[in-house]
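Quick one from the shared queue. A colleague (R.T.) flagged Molecular chaperone TorD family protein as missing a structural entry in our internal table.

Convert sequence to structure tokens.
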Amino acid sequence: MGASNVAAKEKAFTTSLACSDACALLTLFLQYPTIELAEGLNGGSVQADVFSIGLELGCDAKVMRETASSFADHSHANPGALKNELRREHTRLFDHPVLPQVPYYEELFLFSCDHPGVPAKEGPLRFVNKAAVSAEAAYREGGFGVVRENSVPADCITLELAFLGKMYTCASECMQSGDCKRLAEVQAIIREFEQGHVERWIPEFFWRLGNESKGFYGYVGRVGVLYMERILALYPILSI
């Protein structure tokens, strides 16, 4: 095996792990806020993770340093009060029963883009819609069995990102073990899911989030735009 081929495989392996880490961090940011998240913001670990993962993905170091530094706004906040503040904003943005500002369900988000200002109850059903059914089928194919356990619609962004992250982890494991057959299967699942779901709405979701919220979630939106741009551009590198 030539040195260039070895280097390409090592690059694919580390990049795949970086994609998995990025998806995991974005999932954490978009889940219902916990005291652990508030403490991470208070202690600076969130800022460090945002920066290091951005570098692993190949984002510009200066841009990532500036973006990560935004999270320092919360470094002196009381964790308990911060958690409550984040929870209120989380509900307003993502899961408000009448009119969420940035719905984090794929089908409802796309509906809101086509019908701005229309109440969520007039939109698609949460659990039974085209995106949710398609996403759940992809989860089954990839061995991702958390949808029913958590009673969360399958097209929720936290599930879609968690699934994508798991597939990138699986791809890196296949690269490490040399299981070329399984790697090809996983790469096909990743590409199909990115084309059928991720590209349809997640970059736009983060762009809209970055413009809708001026605090923590606004920063998350900016990070999401940067991370997803890299992830969706990296597929040729990972097709080793």
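The first helix runs from residue 3 to 30.
The radius of gyration is 18 Å.
Added to the table.
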